[in-house]
Write a structure and sequence with these properties.
The complex is a heterodimer of chains A (87) and B (666). With 87 residues, chain A is mostly beta strands. Helix content of chain A is 10%, strand content 33%. Chain A has one helix at residues 41-49, and strands at residues 7-14, 30-36, 56-61, 64-65, 77-82. Chain A has a 5-stranded mixed β-sheet, with helices on one face. In chain A, 33% of the residues are buried. With 666 residues, chain B is α+β, with helices and mostly antiparallel strands. In chain B, strands 2-3-11-10-15-12-13-14 form an 8-stranded mixed β-sheet. A 7-stranded mixed β-sheet of chain B has the order 1-5-4-9-6-7-8, with helices on both faces. Chain B has a two-stranded antiparallel sheet with strand order 16-17. The longest helix of chain B is centred in the C-terminal third of the chain and has 21 residues, at 570-590. Classes of the chains: A mainly beta (87), B alpha+beta (666). Chain A binds chain B through residues 15-17, 19, 27-28, 52, 54-55, 57-58, 60, 63, 65, 79, 81-87, and chain B through 270-274, 277-278, 280-283, 285-287, 289-290, 292, 312, 352-354, 468-469, 490-491, 493, 495, 497-498, 500-503, 547, 612.
Chain lengths: 87, 666
């Protein structure tokens, strides 16, 4: 049984198209997601991006660049950017 | 075949006087069977190039042999041999000897997404080197349907004219009433005059008429062939516009493959690309975080107020609609409108990434309304947003460091972050008034005239202002900027960050690109990447394709085969690109360019002042070594001159005649 204290809520914004249905997901828009406590940034990005994980470039938590082994905290704001291309 | 030997196509010319301007009207009437595509052997092309001599007001048509198409493909590939063979060395780029070439690729106008592109080339009045630019929209596809693969404009007209092409017929018409008119009203006036609202135009604004050195040419009001000042060349010829209407797409070898590609893209683009949502500029916060967002005239790579100027911010506040190019479902262009205080007219589209950054972060501007207005001023008058933004950021740094003062600027406090000052200076540039007259020559010429150390703040390569990708993060892009014959061109460069990892390696293995290399690395293997992958990155500009439409390399290969019917390979396509780059290089060598001009601004040898990239620079020694290796891989000697071996390999020994000395023997 999952208890409330085992769940954290973070805001995720992804600039990579999500192949799987992720509730609330919209390209480039923040959405709320409930996650098990202790989850890392790498695990979250895998969950959100699924097979498109290969498109992942830089990641940020609360506006700062972050690495995939970072353990997320309640209320974190996560940004997942695609590999930087042209424009 | 050696070189560009074109067979003159027989045609009849009819002359008549147009009242009341007494302009000689000449019309090339195609002889029988022009629209009979069944007889065409060069599939995907029309087999015809239109020549317009403005000195003599003559129009003619040439029918190149199949070999010409196979050898040069199209787009940039058509431009280089034309400029090299047909123009004298060291001529005035704004004089009658310059030729302005509009060129389509084999895929231009074919009915599938991404095929709406055309190239424009001439000797650049901004760089005095090989000049070229590409644009999207519908004009290129319309020209393909109108029966031509390219237009070569020579001479200068005494009075303003526009060229009208319809279903294989062409005529010059008086444009005196359009001269001085801004881009949108001129476009609409041409449609009204000719009685067809579906007419497409490639057009210049007042900036091109005033010979502003970074004036551009706009397809259908908003799609800019922005770089290297092609609009000024068009203005020097007093050619206001080329209006086009056509109804016949050339036959292709396998229509089903093209239709299948179109269906595939329609079903998959939302999963493969993100630009459809907000256009380019949707990831500016990521750019800023990584140090790739030019800020304060490239002193920094991150901008504190970036979230205010992203594509999302612009879309959320000012977007009217998204729109696109010929046959493309991505619709990555945004149209914006802004009310008080700037009143931005939506007919001029909206800012994309390069514009958001060049007038935004790079000028320290965080007001998206001002950026939208700057974009509108540029399209309304017809100037390149990159060169305009970077030239203004240059002047801002000069002002902040005391090299310019309010006497120079007529009272304008030209500091970073001052949006009204930025807009006033932009207006001065398009009017060629005050300091704007000096800046209208671009940052290099302005710095040369201002002196007093201002050269350090002019961020250009060969006179072409650096686009919004920082070479300190994308070190391969920096190498590409430095060696590209046209100067700092981002459209054909390698974005190192894409190659740090990713699924692309699986498909790019076909072109032998399969190694993950850190973006900040500048090394022999990075030089190889810039050479090898660079040839592929150039290819869309030879084919008439858009780089933003996410086809795989195999799909591109399939498309070329399906359209032309020629057996094709990656090697063959890349060798064609190498041929084009080499001819452009020879053009520059003939103009007197040496490796000394293959230099990056010294700014990139200095660290950004903060952010994640602090401490990272472009090492001059590593850059020099990488350039030498790139030269060797391209088959150029230490002076940048293509070797005999490479000319033989590429089967362009005819180009020897355009080198005033024998190339180094290998």
């Amino acid at each position: 049984m999952i208890k409330n204290q085992d769940i954290i809520i973070v805001m995720v914004r992804s600039f990579i198209p999500s192949r799987e249905l992720v509730e609330g997901y919209e390209l480039g828009r923040p959405f709320k997601i409930e996650l098990p406590r202790g989850i890392t940034l790498g695990e979250l990005s895998q969950m959100v991006l699924s097979k498109n994980i290969d498109q992942l470039g830089i990641m940020a938590v609360n506006g700062e660049a972050a690495k995939k082994n970072l353990v997320l905290s309640p209320g974190d704001k996560v940004d997942l950017y695609a590999l930087l291309d042209g424009g | 075949m050696n070189g560009l030997r074109l067979k003159l196509f027989s045609f009849s010319v009819r002359g008549e006087l147009v009242e009341p301007q007494k302009i000689l009207l000449q019309e090339a009437l195609m002889s029988g069977g022009f629209m009979d595509m069944e007889n065409k052997t060069v599939l995907g092309y029309n087999g015809r190039i239109l020549r317009v001599n403005l000195n003599e007001r003559k129009i003619s048509v040439e029918e190149p042999p199949t070999d010409y198409y196979q050898r040069y493909l199209g787009g940039r590939g058509f431009i280089a041999p034309t400029l090299l063979q047909e123009m004298p060395a060291k001529m005035d780029p704004l004089g009658p000897d310059n030729k302005l070439v509009f060129a389509l690729g084999p895929l231009t106008g074919m009915p599938f997404p991404g095929s709406g592109r055309n190239s424009v080339g001439a000797k650049s009045p901004l760089t005095f080197a090989f000049g070229e630019a590409e644009a999207g929209g519908f004009w290129g596809a319309e020209l393909k349907r109108a029966g031509f693969d390219a237009i070569i404009v020579s001479g200068n007209s005494n009075t303003p004219v526009f060229l009208w092409i319809k279903d294989g017929q062409a005529e010059l018409r008086d444009a005196s009433h359009l001269w001085g008119t801004e881009v949108a009203p001129a476009h609409l006036a041409i449609q009204k005059e000719l009685g067809d609202k579906h007419i497409r135009t490639a057009i210049i604004g007042p900036a091109g008429e005033k010979l502003i050195r970074f004036a551009c040419i706009l397809n259908d009001i908003t799609h800019a062939a922005g770089r290297t000042g092609m609009g000024a060349v068009m203005g020097s010829k007093k050619l206001k516009a080329i209006a086009v209407r056509g109804r016949n797409t050339p036959r292709m070898a396998d229509q089903k493959i093209i239709a299948d590609l179109g269906r595939w893209m329609a079903q998959n683009f939302k999963e493969k690309a993100a630009v459809w949502k907000y256009g380019t500029g949707h990831m500016m916060e990521g750019y800023s975080l990584a140090g790739n967002l030019p800020t304060f005239n490239f002193q920094d790579g991150g901008f504190a107020a970036v979230e205010k100027i992203t594509a999302q911010a612009v879309c959320d506040q000012f977007r009217v609609e998204m729109y696109g190019c010929y046959a493309c479902p991505l619709r990555c262009k945004k149209r914006v409108t802004v009310g008080s205080p700037y009143f931005v007219d939506p007919i001029y589209g909206g800012p994309e990434y390069e514009t958001l950054a060049s007038f935004g972060s790079n000028c320290g501007i965080s007001d998206p309304k001002a950026i939208c207005k700057a974009h509108e001023i540029c399209n309304r008058n017809g100037i390149d947003t990159i060169s305009a933004g970077v030239t203004i950021s240059f002047a801002m740094e000069c002002f902040e460091k005391g090299i310019l003062n309010t006497k120079d600027t007529e009272g304008i406090e030209l500091r970073f972050g001052k949006e009204d000052a930025m807009l006033k200076m932009l207006e001065q540039i398009v009017q060629k008034q005050g300091l704007g007259a000096l800046l209208s020559g671009g940052s290099r010429l302005a710095a040369k005239q201002i002196g007093r150390g201002s050269e350090e703040f002019a961020i250009h390569v060969k006179g072409l202002e650096v686009p919004m990708h920082d070479p300190r993060l994308k070190q391969g892009m920096g190498l590409h900027y430095s060696v590209h014959p046209a100067g700092a061109d981002h459209c054909s460069g390698v974005h190192d960050t894409l190659l740090e990892k990713g699924p692309q390696f699986e498909e790019w293995a076909a072109i032998d690109v399969n190694e993950s290399i850190p973006s900040i690395e500048l090394s022999p293997r990075k030089a190889r990447l810039v050479y090898q992958f660079g040839l592929w990155r150039h290819l869309p500009n030879y084919l008439g394709m858009c780089v933003l439409v996410p086809y795989s390399s195999k799909q591109i290969l399939d498309a070329v085969e399906a359209v032309t019917g020629w057996p094709m390979s990656y090697w063959r396509l890349m060798k064609t690109v190498e041929r084009g780059i080499t001819l452009a290089k020879i053009f520059n060598v003939r103009e007197g360019f040496t490796p000394a001009e293959d230099a990056l601004p010294r700014r990139f040898g200095v660290s950004q002042r903060g952010g994640n990239l602090k401490g990272v620079t472009v090492d001059p020694g590593k850059l020099s070594e990488a350039q030498k290796l790139y030269f060797q891989m391209m088959g150029w000697d230490e002076h940048g001159i293509p070797t005999m071996a490479r000319l033989v390999e590429l089967d362009i020994t005819w180009a020897l005649a355009h080198l005033n000395f024998s190339p180094k023997k290998t």
